[in-house]
Amino acid sequence: MCCDSKRRFLLLYATQKGQAKAIAEEIWQQAGAHGLEADMHCISEMDKYNLETEKDPVVIVISTTGTGDPPDTARKFVKKIQDTALPPDHFAHLQYGLLGLGDSEYMFFCNGGKTVDRRLQELGAQHFYDTGFADDCVGLELVVDPWIDGLWLALKEALLLQKEKEGMNNVVDAVTSSPSPAPHVVHEVNLSSEVQNLKLEDEGARNSDVPSQKLDDINLLDPARNTEPSLVNSVPPVSQSALNIPTLPPEYIEVQFQGTHGKNPHLSSLISEETTFEVPVTKAVQLTREDAIKTALLLELDISDTVFDYQPGDAFCVICPNNTNEVEELLHILGLSEKGDDFVCVKVKQGTKKKGASRPQHIPERSTVKFILTWCLEIRAVPKKAFLRALVECTSDAGEKRRLQELCSKQGASDYMRFIRDSNVCFLDLLHAFPSCKPSLNLLIEHLPKLQARSYSVSSSNLYQPGKLCFVFNIVEFPACPARPTSRKGVCTGWLAELVAPLLHPSKNTLNTKGENFSTEKIPIFPRPNNTFHLPTDPSVPFIMVGPGTGISPFIGFLQHRQKLREQHTDWEFGETWLFFGCRHRDRDYLFKQLRCFLENGTLTHLKVCFSRDSSTAEVAPPKYVQDIIRLYAKEVTRVLLEEKGYFYICGDKKHMADGVSDAIVDILSMEMEADRLEAMKILAMLREEKRYLQDVWS
């Protein structure tokens, strides 16, 4: 602990994809400008800090992953503090402030942060600063920026109180510039639409090696030329404002080119803890008609030569590459077209001012440039403001430089949300929009996040189809827009669709000697077991499944598994099964019309379907959505859930479906139980707690 103890605070972060770490680094960088020193560590590095003896204030930045879990880096920490043997005053000496990151599109918003916050409180720790919960759905910065702005005064007062307790009033001036110290209070931060301005002081600029710059003396463009704001065009008041821009992040990566001799690492080295398998695609079927709004594909993988195991309801991940054309385009813009196959050595830059700098785990020490851009970096990621700030220094055109400054400034916050975040503008789009911006490869490695494997629900049963794994997906489409001149397909779904095109549209070259389609293409996968989204262990327990569109995917596996169990155990008692399915058109995107086979053989007891875009001549219009058709079976749903202690499963889109289904269940329970809505919500919460109301949803 090398920091000056008179003005030190402990800064811990727990991250899954790097956002919590980036925010912690921003706090660490700003601390110096406020006369403070942050002792920063990943929360997993428990050998480098000790909360049991910590006297200084603690700041924690923590994200949420999965279905409300703390990130992987926080698992050991959470397990440690959840020890039931700890006394209620275990952390009575501790003062802390916590910033939680989450996404309100998911049910357990910021639950990672809430779990840690709640447990620290139970063990006697005290807030010196109000907890903040930042929502990635609307923009983390809307909460993060004002939370950091208010942190410094709260920290200084917490340190002041600490010194007073120690009888060290003579050193108070070392931690506060205020001539008359304010009383110790817990600061409440306004986390709504009001964002405070943070003026970057000269000292902060000097600490980051950035010359102080008056940004309002750079004119962007002639205002008369275009009065409409856009990604590249600014209008008053932003175009005429003095700007408060973030501190320039210190560079910390060095890239050395080493020629074309060598071998790229295996893809399994990119995955930290999982076992990867390269498996062939043996079957591909288009489930939707050509005129359907979305194109859904079913792929079958052969896992017979692996030890890959799964249960219906589990998920698995596909390790996918970036689009080849986009990688080539990026190489061209970066001036590296001739060096794509050159090997580079990536290491930490000597003398960097970044604390605890290390080579990102997802970047090999030695590989080709093309390998890094294809398999390691998420080049479709929406650029963060810190990245925009770094790109300013790589831009030669004064107008483009000014616009990038605006987009990362506090004054340009709404422009950033509108033209970058909400428009899903990626790094490549940005380089097209600002052609004088020529960043180096090391800057991409420093700022672009890891290319994440994509998760899919299993749509099969190993009992029903031994050695096979099936999954279903829609090919994601991003339409063209002003900031994106051409449409794009999803990174993984577009790659998979291209990969299996020979199976979907066979030619003589893709037929074997028996005239059957075959494929030699393999895809790398690894398991992602689901601890709860499984069939009831007791087969006599009834259950209800709700899965419109591709949300039906895991339930095909459920039904296949149930059918096989019924065939193998004719003496067992099996509970009734309900499936609510919906799509737009009966004849275009009814994905699994063979559901009727499950109905006919008794595996499925009740099948209820609805079609939202089909016209009807009936006097009473049929229900359009699954939440509507569920309401028609209120008594049956209540009986299954409350009288027979059954299970309720939902899979699919959260915002437009799962929330509507939850509302329908609350209304049903309220009506059937003759209870008010609040009581019905408590019953639903009880079902969630008992793991009988289960969701596998996405935004």
TrEMBL record:
Keywords: Amino-acid biosynthesis, Cytoplasm, FAD, Flavoprotein, FMN, Methionine biosynthesis, NADP, Oxidoreductase, Phosphoprotein, S-adenosyl-L-methionine. One of its GO terms (molecular function) is [methionine synthase] reductase (NADPH) activity. SUPFAM superfamilies: Ferredoxin reductase-like, C-terminal NADP-linked domain (SSF52343), Flavoproteins (SSF52218), Riboflavin synthase domain-like (SSF63380). It comes from the Eukaryota. Forms a multiprotein complex with MMACHC, MMADHC and MTR. The gene is Mtrr. Residues 9-152 form the Flavodoxin-like domain. GO terms for cellular component: cytosol. Pfam families: FAD_binding_1, Flavodoxin_1, NAD_binding_1. Gene3D superfamilies: 3.40.50.360, NADPH-cytochrome p450 Reductase, Chain A, domain 3, Nucleotide-binding domain of ferredoxin-NADP reductase (FNR) module, Translation factors. GO terms for biological process: cobalamin metabolic process; folic acid metabolic process; homocysteine metabolic process; methionine biosynthetic process. Residues 274-536 form the FAD-binding FR-type domain. Its cofactor is FMN; FAD. This is Methionine synthase reductase. InterPro entries: CysJ-like_FAD-binding, FAD-bd_FR_type, Flavdoxin-like, Flavodoxin/NO_synth, Flavoprot_Pyr_Nucl_cyt_Rdtase, Flavoprotein-like_sf, FNR_nucleotide-bd, NADPH_Cyt_P450_Rdtase_alpha. It catalyses: 2 cob(II)alamin + A + 2 H2O + 2 H(+) = 2 aquacob(III)alamin + AH2. CDD domains: methionine_synthase_red. It comes from Mionectes macconnelli. Its main location: cytoplasm. It is found in: Cytoplasm. Its EC number is 1.16.1.8.
